[in-house]
Request: fold
Amino acid sequence: MFSTSTSRLRRNSSGSMYFEAALSLTFQLALGAYLGHYYDIRVFMVSGYAVAEGLSPYETRELESVFDHPHFDGGVPGIGYPPPWGLLLGLIYQVSYNIFPNIFFYNVVIKLPVILGNLLLAVLVRNLLQKENVEAKMVKAAWRFFLFNPFVVYTTAVWGQFDPLVAFLTVLSVLLLFQGKNKASAILLGLAAAFKLIPVAFVFASLLFLKKKNEKIRGLEYILFFTGAFVAATYLPFPLLNWGIAPIFSSWNIHFSVLGGLSLFNIAELFGRDSFPAGLELLGYLWAPALIITFYILWRRTVSPSFEELVKSCLVFIFVLLLTRSWVSEQNLNLLFPFLILNASLGGISQRAVTLAWVIPFIFTFFNASFLQQLFLIYPEAIALNDTVFSAESFLHYRLILRFLVVIPWHIMGWWIVVRNLRS
Reply:
């Protein structure tokens, strides 16, 4: 009788899980079809067209005649990420706009890998917590976070950024590392970093874990496989597809020289600057010594190579990177959330910290003036309205002050989590 009751409970749980996944998918697709970030989605659409036509996605193009929308005139900049995302956009264009030339259909198909990333993260984190015998209530909360959290949905399905896909590859890489599949882990992490560079921080956590397992020689092997996968995915498309590499060399350090976002360096915009002044450019690389110092501190510790310790070190390294970069976009936090939730569910930090980690940035997005920009496809006048409301001289100064003030508690909370985990 007990066995029958248990089976019934499991069936009910599975049924509820499928229903919630379907509900989340429907909700995200509905939002994703009509909304999208004014800058990023235009760049993604143009890049997809360029790759599909055998052109480089790294050059500015004017495609109003192709997409029949007023915001595609005057030139749309090239993509600012390594080739894998551009290649995927080319495939997306071929199976969407090239067949059915509707801009909303194209928009939602671009969002499909993003939304899929959210669903896959929900499944992966849920399964990891179940294997760690975490309380069912916390497992359900983690599962629903990736499906329905407003900040997650806003920065992914609405905005269109693909960080959840990168996060899924990264978490899966960490799981493979824990299971002893070092080569597969390194290759997967190299591929994740080839989409966005942020996962490079997890190389430190991987090397630390291998050292704790007394497999230092495996660390060198891990670096070689990671580097091989990363270089192959980021370099080979240029000669194979005959893309000019000059735009890459001319702006290779763009992500290390701009100031703003959730970084404390956004205070510079109060003084009319969005990049480091001459002589202070090295501050854009503050994250590098910060990661090295963190690695040295943890290297000297004697801890067991448990899954909990691996998650803890991953959380520390990603937080240190995000807290010391000169520019951090809201969507980048989607690489932080899986490890934050795993750490909280395993007893490392309180659930209140998880709430603050997304609520504070969500408030920040309002002062960052990005809400109206998501309406440009269905309401092109939203961009002019956004400039009128958020960039007016009478309000701009106060908005920038408030944006900086909101970032301060987020950094305090972040460093508190880092120090707490380092001390424990």
User: Anything to note?
Assistant: The radius of gyration is 22 Å. The longest helix spans residues 2-34.
